[in-house]
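Data availability (excerpt). The following record was deposited with the supplementary files.
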Amino acid sequence: MIGVVVALVMTLGGGSNGTAKDAADGFASAISNRDYDKLRSLTCAEDQKEIDDLKKAFDPDAMGAELDKQLEGLPAEAKEQARKMQEALKDIKVVASVDKVEEKSDTQAEATLTIKLEGVPSEMRELMKDTQTDTVPFKKTDDGWVACEK
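Predicted structure:
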C-alpha cells in the first residue's frame, strides 16, 4: 500500500521511470531521501493527494503546531516528554530498497519494497517496526511508470 509505505517513510529521491524497475528504484530513493516532490512525480494523479497530505503531516512546523494543539491541558511534564519524542523522531533514518519488481502485463507491475528504520530510540522500538515489507502497485502511463493503487 502506498499509504503505508509513505507513512513509514517520509522521504524521497531521483531516477527515471522509463521501466517499472526504474520507477520502483526512484520511488524507494525518494522515500529514503524524504523527497516528496519526487515521490509525487512517481505517483499517479489519483494518489497524489496522499503524498500532499503526507508532506503536510511531516512538515516540522505543521507537526509542532498540531502537537501543541494536542497537548493543550496536559501537565508540563507530559508536554516536555512529547516534545522530546518529537525531536527523537527527526533523527530516525528511513531506508527503502527494492527487493523485486514483477511485471504483471505491459502496463501493470508490482514492486516489493523493504523499509528499514534506523536510529529508533529504545523507548520507541515497541511502537515502531524497524523493518517492514510492502507491495506497491505500478502502472504504465503516457509519462512512464508510476505507483498507483487506484
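Summary of structural features: The longest strand covers residues 93-103.
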